[in-house]
Amino acid sequence: MCYRLNLSTSSPDDLTRYNSQWVRFSRPDAGDSLSTTPLANAQQWFVGSMDGCSCRFRHFADGDLVFEEPQDLMEEDKDSIRATRELYRVIASLVHAGARVDCVDLWPASEPVEIKTMSVRLSEVSEEVFRLFENHHFVFEP
What we know:
There is one protein chain. The protein has one domain. Helices cover 13% and strands 27% of the residues. It is built from 1 helix and 8 strands; from the N terminus they run ββββαββββ.
């Protein structure tokens, strides 16, 4: 199983223009059901990392859900850190251009999971500390 990061935005821009070695935006496949995620905007995207899935972004699942810099004890690799920072830059670019942006980070489960929503103020959360929280819906604000 893999993490799945779904993003939505009010921007009509083609986000594939941001595709790189570390971050890949694509439209969801016709069979993908995003209806179980609380995405708020019309333009919806799947966000993959260098392996195709969303696993190579910085994720956090258990414990205190706080934004913090990578820690040596977490053994986060440089590619995951770079991919997450690049994702942050795309989100920040869209938000600062006036677009609404939200995303949902999911770990597939056989049972329905509770998805918690949280506001992420980009003025308070820097790219150095940004990471995704499993089964959370982020709503980004400037």
